[in-house]
Amino acid sequence: MTLTEQEKKTATRAGTVAGRAGLPMTDCPYRGEEPRARALRYLWVAAYQRVKPAEPGTVNYDES
């Protein structure tokens, strides 16, 4: 599975825009557990958190 540069840019830009707009992180459009969705979700969330970092203690990384 390889993401195209356009897919990466789109996911990153969408996460940045969502964070700046103050949307909840749960608005991430990339759902599912297939590798492509997981990779795009990672990029989206990373971009989102760069502009709207989570408050300490509010993110549970151990939750499945």
From TrEMBL:
Superkingdom in the source lineage: Bacteria
Basic and acidic residues: bias regions: 1-10
Spans annotated as Disordered: 1-30
Low complexity compositional bias, start-end: 12-22
NCBIfam families referenced in this protein's UniProt entry, alphabetically: Rmf_CrpP_fam
Stated name of the protein: Rmf/CrpP family protein
Species this protein is from: Actinomadura yumaensis
